[in-house]
Amino acid sequence: MIVSGFEGTTLTARTEDLILQQGIGGLILFERNYKNPDQLLKLINDLQSLNADNSEIPPLFISVDQEGGRVARLGEPFTQFPHMACLGQADSNDLAYRFGLGMGKELRAVGINMDYAPVLDVHSNPENPIIGKRALDTDPEKVARLGTELIRGFYDAGVIPVGKHFPGHGDTSQDSHLTLPRVDRTRESLEQCELIPFSHAIQQGLEVIMTAHVVYPAWDAHQPATFSPTIMNDVLRNSLQFEGLIMSDDLEMQAIDQKLESIS
Q1: Do residues 136 and 142 touch, judged by C-beta distance below 8 A?
Q2: How high is the pLDDT of residue 258?
Q3: Alpha-carbon distances of 158 from 36, 52, 102, 161, rounded to whole Å
Q4: 237 touches 207 (CB < 8 A)
Q5: Do 44 and 140 share a structural domain?
Q6: Catalytic hit among 91, 177, 234, 250
Q7: Domain carrying residue 110
Q8: 77 and 58, same structural domain?
Q9: If you ran DSSP here, which 8-state letter would residue 211 be given?
């Protein structure tokens, strides 16, 4: 299944072709697709209407990267939620739930049914250039507990949450948008820190997980997690018993650009 970006704030022939002829499974929204809530609602209704008469085709995943803080594709009048580290500082299960519920209700009101949140990475490396305050906390147990409440809030709002970035992007010292990072922790250390939030979220019903474009030599010294059968099958499917949907992070990121070229 492909989730694609697209141009414009209205339905175009090119986007219609992506849906009807190319058979994509969903679309991701960016700032370029948004003017105001009314325009966005009409756009999404037009997108969903293309296959509305075909009962064999499920509705499109209409998704967005709306975490709060600096990762927010939809500007005002959508609420500008703070970065998720604020939830870790507050350490309130109820606040985390209401954060997910409130954000989810705003997204669902305009037809968005999937959000690439919450970040379930543990902020275990203070030099990390890309995660930082996007992570809930440095304590894996707290990330697990608050992350689960965020997920529950999203689901109660009618939005599918996507836990990311499996098996954990918090200990990298490089940005996977720019290069291919690696995490040189032992398998035991990864299991006791990075995997805990994902394991807990899976047990509590998380249905969609996004992978990290990061190499973890303890499991696979050659492939980033996104392309690693060891990490995807042995760790995620078998060890953590995840039966839901696995999504890749952006395939245009520099971390895997050369890898995709070698595959093609």
Answers
A1: yes
A2: 57
A3: 21, 19, 11, 9
A4: no
A5: no
A6: 177
A7: 70-263
A8: no
A9: E
Whether residue 137 lies in the annotated active site: no
The CATH number covering residue 150 comes to 3.20.20.300
Query: Is 249 assigned a catalytic role?
Result: yes
Both 59 and 101 in one domain: the answer is: no
Q: Does the pTM of the predicted model rise above 0.85?
A: yes
* Spacing of C-alpha 203 from chain mean position: 18
Number of compact structural domains in the chain: 2
CA 133 to CA 67: how far, in whole Å? 11
How do 71-72 and 66-68 pair as beta strands?
antiparallel
Q: Please tell me the total number of residues recorded for the chain in this structure.
A: 264
Helix 195-203 × helix 140-157 angle, to 10° = 40
Q: Indicate if 191 and 234 belong to the same structural domain.
A: yes
Contact (CB, 8 A) for 231 and 195: no
Residues of the chain with pLDDT under 50: 260-264
One domain, residues 155 and 245: yes
Residues 82 and 170 placed together within one structural domain of the fold: yes
DSSP string, 3-19: EE---SSS--HHHHHHH
